[in-house]
Design goal:
The chain is about 35% helix and about 20% strand. By secondary structure, the protein is an alpha+beta fold. It has three domains: about 10-60; about 95-235, Penicillin-binding protein 2a (Domain 2) (Alpha-Beta Complex); about 240-575, Beta-lactamase, CATH 3.40.710. Strands 1, 2, 3, 4 and 7 form a five-stranded mixed β-sheet that branches. Strands 9-8-16-15-14 form a five-stranded antiparallel β-sheet, with helices on both faces. It has a two-stranded antiparallel ribbon with strand order 5-6. Helix 10 (about 315-325) crosses helix 12 (about 370-380) and helix 10 packs antiparallel against helix 16. The N and C termini lie far apart (about 150 Å). The relative contact order is 0.10.
Length: about 600
Amino acid sequence: MIRTPLRPLARVLDARSRGENPDAIERENIRLRHEEMSDRARRRAEGRLLVLAVMFFCAFGVIGGRMAVLARTEPAEPRTSLAGADIFAQRADIVDREGRILATNFDTYSLYAQPQMMVDPATAVEKLVAIFPDLDRKRLLNNFTGTRKFLWIKRKMSPEQQQAVHDIGEPGLLFGPREMRLYPNGRLAAHVLGGAGFGREGVHAAEVVGVAGIEKFYDERLRDPARSNEPLVLSLDLSVQAAMERVLLGGMKIMNAKGAAGILMEVRTGEVLAVASLPDFDPNDRPALPVTGRPDDSPLFNRAVQGVYELGSTFKVFAVAQALDLGLVTPDTIINTKTPMTWGKFRIHDFRNYGPEQTVTNVIVKSSNVGTARIAMEIGGVRQRSFLEKLGFMEQSPLEITEAAGSKPLVPAKWSELSTMTISYGHGLSISPMHLAAAYATLVNGGRRVTPTLVHDRSHGPGDRVISEQTSAAMRKMLREVVSHGTASLGEVPGYAVGGKTGTADKPRINGKGYEKEKVLSTFASIFPSYDPKYVLVVSLDEPVETSGDEPRRTAGWTAVPVGAEIIRRVAPLLGLRPEIEPGELAVITQASN
């Protein structure tokens, strides 16, 4: 910047020549310089004030705009989720093999309150309690008259309840749209479906997530927005499921049983057409998990899958099938069945004395513990364990429900000779009824491994070979003999040639020390029709007592077998099976001479 001198020489000389005072020039220049400096300072201050004014205007504009947006938006309950994450409420339907709805979605509303907007909180509380009797009157009034700005009242409600709340006319009671999971068949197939609940929630949306059963197992697939219009098709048949559950419930009551389980499975594909566990529950109103008592006291307990039991004499067919397949015996081989059988200090008894000798077929038909134990000793523990492993008895059930993770069989820590004998007739190794159904399907379908499944898929088929077709045919004949002449004679259903095996096992105490007195688990594992099996049915009753006679009877032949027979009688026509005359052996034809 060029600075103007205060006493310019030219002007000073000029002023002296005219007789003027040169100091006046200096004072004038000082005044002009001060005015210029003042003008610059003023302009600088005005610029700064303008910038600050613009900044304050923008800041207050943003704050005001945000306040306006919030004022027009209804408040949402705080939730732990990623900021800006969308809530996808749509969930795919679940249907049975015929396309009938098992689980779908239902549009409803949630009820929440903004207490600061309420006109008459006390009256609103009284009317709400009348509509929803489960609400706590005192707690609700405290929330309405306290400092809370937002309050959930009901996550879901019926249209009738919504209208009743609307009629209260309280501006502080507001509704938010909801999509909830609906099970239109109520308790039917409850343990398979499991149930669903809410995950992340907002005022205008809620995430529906599976909490148990197949809903939880396939939760990611059912919540996939790209597949929301693609229903999950199960192997269940709704009509067959309903018929089996009704008969099973009636049988449980008649036999005074504590609980019951039933499984109906295709022998070649492993597809489960019906599976039930009683007592059951309504997945629309799923009860809370119990915190005390035995696990199987809860209706949430799935006896067909989670129930791991010693299944008694139903195991005998596996020892005989393995011995036949190894060529150790034939159906007509004579076995020593003299009872009791002594091993060290242990004795093995039969239910009754069947005589000193029986054929292998009669060991199954009469259900001889001693005969089966002797056959098992011929097989040996190593080969026995390997065979049972091929049948899936060393791993949890692969069924597509979360509860299957708890179906791990209980295997003895040391597979001794005594274990080999007792396991052969169903004591010392605990499995679930689902394991048993799959193993029976393997034995009778020609000898190929079956994997149980709840998903309907035409590509399902038998797996690796476990036994030969000849052994499988022999086992089918033996199982038929058990029903026609043996311990399961009450299982006969005219026209359907039922085959099967009974099993009665003492219940172990909950502390694992010994067995309960006069408490058993009775099981009937059956096939039909036995000459060309299409289906396996397993029925299990917990602590049954048949009281029609002079003395109570608990064995499977008197308890589980009649229930199984009635189920077959009801469901066989639904499965498209027509009653047929059972094919017999061809008569020996001889030519007579003239």
